[in-house]
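Thread amino acids onto this structure.
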C-alpha cells in the first residue's frame, strides 16, 4: 500500500471520481461556479462604489441655487450671507448666462436646441458653488443647515454631493445585506451538492474501501482522494468563474470608458490577481468543506 501512497495516486483517484460521477460533478462545478461569479460581481461592485464614493466626497462642494426672480442686489446680499457661514473655504458665483453656456458646451450634437435661448428668456438661475474646509460629517451638516436657513433670503435649493455620497453609501449597505443572504443560500446549496457528489464517489468505491480497510489502510489514505476530488471541483469552478468574470468586467470597463466617463472604474489589470486568488481560495475551501462533511458522514458507517 505504501508504494501507492503518492500525490500522483491521489490525483488520479480524484480525477477518476470526477469522471465516474460526471453528472453530479458537473452540477457541483456549475453551482459553485454560479456562487463565485455572483460573489465576485458583488465584491467588484462594492469596490467600485467605494472608489466613486471617495471621489464624490473629495469634491467637498455644495451648490446653492437662487430664486429665479432675485435682483442683482439681492443676489449680492445672499452671497455675503453665504460667506458669513461657518466652515466656508470659498464661494464662487455662477451666473445663469454661464450656466447656459456650460449646458451648450456639454450638449454636443444637440447644441442647436439652445440657439433661441438668450439672456431675456434664459430659464436658468444664478447659483453659488461653495467649497468647505472640514469633511467631518457634523461640520458639513451644520453648514448645510445654515445654508438652508437662507431660503427666506432667496436661496431656492441647496444641493450637497456629500449627502449624495451618504445616500449611495446607504444603498451600498443595503445591497451588501441582500448579497450576504443570497451568498449564504448559494454557499449552503454548493456544500450540499458537493456532499452528494462525494457521497456517490464513496458509494461507487465501497467495495474497494472495504478491501483497503481489511488490509490495514489508514483513514488518511482512504479519505485523501475524496478531499482532492473536492479540491478539483473547487479549483475548476474557480478558474472558469475567473474567466467569466474577466469577460464581464472587461466588457463593462470598455463600455464605461467610452460612454460613461463620469464614472470611475478600477482597471482590471489592478485587480485580476486578487480576483483569481479569491476565486481559487473560496472554491477550493468550499470543495474541501463539502468533501470532509461527506466523508465523515459516509465513511463512519
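Threaded sequence (301 positions):
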Amino acid at each position: 500500500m505504501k508504494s501507492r501512497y503518492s500525490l500522483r495516486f491521489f490525483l488520479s483517484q480524484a480525477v477518476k471520481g470526477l469522471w465516474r460521477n460526471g453528472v453530479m460533478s458537473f452540477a457541483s462545478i456549475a453551482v459553485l461556479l454560479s456562487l463565485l461569479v455572483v460573489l465576485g460581481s458583488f465584491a467588484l461592485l462594492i469596490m467600485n462604489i467605494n472608489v466613486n464614493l471617495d471621489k464624490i466626497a473629495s469634491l467637498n462642494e455644495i451648490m446653492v441655487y437662487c430664486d429665479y426672480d432675485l435682483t442683482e442686489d439681492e443676489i449680492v446680499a445672499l452671497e455675503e450671507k453665504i460667506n458669513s457661514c461657518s466652515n466656508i473655504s470659498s464661494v464662487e458665483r455662477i451666473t445663469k448666462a454661464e450656466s447656459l453656456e456650460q449646458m451648450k458646451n456639454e450638449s454636443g450634437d444637440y447644441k442647436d436646441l439652445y440657439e433661441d435661448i438668450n439672456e431675456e428668456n434664459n430659464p436658468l438661475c444664478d447659483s453659488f458653488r461653495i467649497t468647505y474646509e472640514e469633511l467631518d460629517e457634523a461640520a458639513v451638516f451644520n453648514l448645510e443647515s445654515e445654508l438652508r436657513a437662507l431660503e427666506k433670503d432667496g436661496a431656492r435649493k441647496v444641493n450637497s454631493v456629500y449627502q449624495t455620497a451618504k445616500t449611495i453609501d446607504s444603498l451600498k449597505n443595503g445591497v451588501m445585506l441582500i448579497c450576504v443572504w443570497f451568498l449564504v443560500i448559494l454557499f449552503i446549496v454548493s456544500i450540499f451538492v458537493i456532499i452528494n457528489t462525494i457521497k456517490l464517489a464513496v458509494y461507487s468505491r465501497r467495495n474497494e474501501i472495504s478491501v483497503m480497510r481489511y488490509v490495514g489502510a489508514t483513514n488518511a489514505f482512504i479519505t485523501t482522494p475524496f478531499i482532492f476530488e473536492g479540491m478539483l471541483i473547487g479549483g475548476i469552478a474557480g478558474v472558469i468563474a475567473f474567466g467569466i468574470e474577466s469577460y464581464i468586467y472587461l466588457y463593462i470597463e470598455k463600455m464605461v470608458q467610452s460612454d460613461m466617463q463620469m464614472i470611475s472604474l478600477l482597471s482590471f489589470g489592478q485587480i485580476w490577481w486578487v480576483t483569481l486568488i479569491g476565486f481559487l481560495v473560496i472554491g477550493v475551501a468550499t470543495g474541501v468543506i463539502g468533501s470532509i462533511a461527506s466523508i465523515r458522514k459516509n465513511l463512519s458507517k
